[in-house]
Amino acid sequence: MTISRSVEDVPLNNFHKLLTIRSGGGSFVDGYVLSIIGVAMLQLTSGLNLSDFWQGLIAASALIGIFCGGFLGGWLTDRLGRKNVFFVGPTIFILGSLAQFWVESAMALFLLRFLIGMAVGIEYPVATSLLVEFLPRKYRGPRLATLTILWFAGAALAYVAGNFILSAGGDDAWRLVLASPAVIGAILFAVRMGTPESPRWLLSKGRAAEAESIIRQVYGPDFSLKNLPEQAEAKKLSVWNLLHSGYGKRMLFVSVFWTCSIIPVFAVYAFAPKVLQALNLKGDWASFGSVAITLLFVVGCIIATRLINSIGRRSMLIQSFLWSGLALLGLGAFNSGSEVLILLLFGAYALFIGGAQVLQLVYPNELFPTEIRAFAVGVGTSLSRVGAAVGTYLVPISLETLGIAQTMYAAAAVTLVGLLVAWALAPETRSLNLQQAASLT
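Below the sequence we write its predicted structure tokens.
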């Protein structure tokens, strides 16, 4: 008997769970490699005699690489397929991280961090589009949000493992710290072996027989192309649809809210010891504070993941920007307060920004059709990193010239912009299938 229900209405199976791990592993490595530079920065600065200019540039180099990698990854994923691009990121993570062990100049480290950033940029469009095109609609939001949790989990591990390596090693321990992501990259490469191509992408390329074979393999022998209803009205789209017929407005929304949600986060991760030091948290307070705040980011994302289907995407985004922005204002106003107050305010920011963080991967994957989904995610990734790179580069300069209070106020202003854009443009997509969410009508 033929099952008439859509593949988006089936229960979550073991394939979906494994694919979440395969896709989420990229986010985990991403969080690790982008955060590990903050752990190594103080010893690295001494080891390579870095000026403030090179400190900022090296901290921002991976973000610049993400800008290039996002465009490239989205373009390649939509043209060559999700499966073919799925192994590019892990390969670069391994080779680029190992090469950092032998760097002898600021320029060499900048170039390697740029290359690793490109791998991160490639990961976002390929991993998220592959995952969302297999997931049932009920689990789409929570599972995509889980990737953000894994990002912060990777960041937390970076601080724990990085500080352990620094304490156990000598003056050159920073080299081992920067090379350590190669281990995770190798595990990720192995885990991804055997991943099938997306049936939706295959259909967009006219490869119906292959698509149907994978559908039967994943969902069972009673399923076929008839259970993928959105393909009944599939039409050829080009990347220019991002700027025409309504997709330009969606791209604006995704890029701006994504940028505003990551600028303060990336700046904090890149220079966590310096920021906490400027807020009068020194010694053990600074070390434990970095780990505690990172763990609270994870907790905030976990809470947001559990609430995403109940309170909706739009409400979550607005509330997240509102309360996290107020916490940043508090850090600016009470920058000379006690250690406990500073940690409470930083903790509040970490918890409340979780809503905006998990929606970074949910919204762009839901608002664009299969033919341009990966490219849209890549563009959003790239454009958001422009602001993040500039913000990260300016952190040490801002701390030196303007002080911690004005730096925190600037972060709060960025969050306010995100709030206004969310209020004006954020749609609600929680109950829609992919075809409905991506439709302009």
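The chain is about 75% helix and 0% strand.
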